[in-house]
Amino acid sequence: MNTRAHIFLAVLLSVLTGCIYPFSVENGEGEFNDIVVSGNILIGETTRITLGYVYPIGSAVSEMRKEFPRGTITIEHDSGQVWKGTYQYRGVYSFDTASAPAEGSYRLNIRLDEGTEFASDWAAVCPAPEIGNLHAEQSGGVVQIVMDLKGTGSLWHYRWDYFQTWEYHADYIPDLMFIPRLPEGDRENPAKIYRSPEPDEDYYYCWNSAASVEPGLGSSKGQSIDEIQNAEVATIPVSDMRISHLYCIDVTASGLSEGGRAWQQHLKDVSNDTGSLFSPTPSDMPGNIHCTSSEGINAIGYVDAVCRTTSRLFIGPEYYKRAYDPDQYIFIPDPDEDGFYNFDNLYINNSPVKCNGTPTKTNVYWGPKRCVDCRASGGTKTKPEWWPNNDK
């Protein structure tokens, strides 16, 4: 692989996920100042555009996070109206385009502090498609979430992303809490090694969330109707805890221009190793952002102006098949060779679960911490305000 391709391939995943890391590298006689531009102009909501420097493979993360392109970033409408970006963090600029008109054309203008200027091509607004028949269906050992997309006007190309939120539960609600780091003389006294849980120590209900890693892409070009049926949004194994109680997915869909669709598909193909050996690197793939002040400086990226629409789906536990039997992990600890119960060591990986009658050293059941503390599986006790049930 030549040096140029080696350098540019490093930005590929960053463009797809929005995680743009900065780096400026000596390349030949001068400094290498090409930038990456990620994001679309979103009509009817806040726009976020991310700027980053191109960096070579193998760069240290500490170096990549030192600086990001800074300057004046504006969105311009063909009527002359302008929206100025506000710098947020790590190369992210936000624009209040909630009331921007859904007609006409837009472009992005970038003037960096050192004087270099870039501009995107004028882009007509892509109208939002209609999301229909968003539903879940089981096929083998996975649950597939699918939908239909219907274009409006001359819209033929689509992109979709999603954000998922789920509630899940621990396997058991503990009756007792172990008191760690007791004086050695108290570790054999059942009246001292356990206590009742406090009201705020209910770790049975938890919530978690995650965004899609890469966009879904589809096209109805060449079909008799401008519609995609049964587009796959996400797949979830039936043993996945996300669908063990209540799962919610918010799907956001937008249209794309012909060039924007080709750009996004190329990045997706290369990142998933499905592109050809002779496919262009991201740096060679034609974007629509150009340096207007200097020759030999490039901007990697493609900016469309789009309207988006969102649809929500809840899934209950009807598809869930538990991957393990929690009863197999419940046990009563045995004393060590000296007849002592070393609960301090036992607590490193385990927690008390339940007790039959008055607690003693030999009737308190124990199990893995994940069985009694939902936080051990990565969730939190922070319930979304819009969550539809009364669990807490």
How would you describe the overall organization of this protein?
It is built from 6 helices and 26 strands. Strands 4, 6, 7, 10, 11, 12, 15, 18, 19, 21, 22 and 24 form a 12-stranded mixed sheet that branches. The chain has a 5-stranded mixed sheet with strand order 8-9-5-3-23, with no helix packed on it. A 3-stranded antiparallel sheet has the order 13-14-20, with no helix packed on it. Strand 8 and strand 9 (92-95) form a beta hairpin. The protein has 392 residues and is mostly beta strands. The chain has helices at residues 3-8, 12-17, 61-64, 190-193, 258-271, 343-346; strands at residues 25-27, 30-32, 35-38, 41-43, 47-53, 71-77, 82-84, 86-89, 92-95, 105-112, 117-120, 123-126, 130-139, 142-150, 157-169, 177-178, 194-195, 205-211, 216-219, 227-237, 246-256, 289-291, 299-300, 305-315, 350-355, 364-368. The radius of gyration is 27 Å and the shape is elongated. Among the domains are: 3-127 and 256-307, Immunoglobulins (Immunoglobulin-like, Sandwich); 169-207 and 324-377, no CATH class. Mean pLDDT is 86; it is low at 1-32 and 274-280.
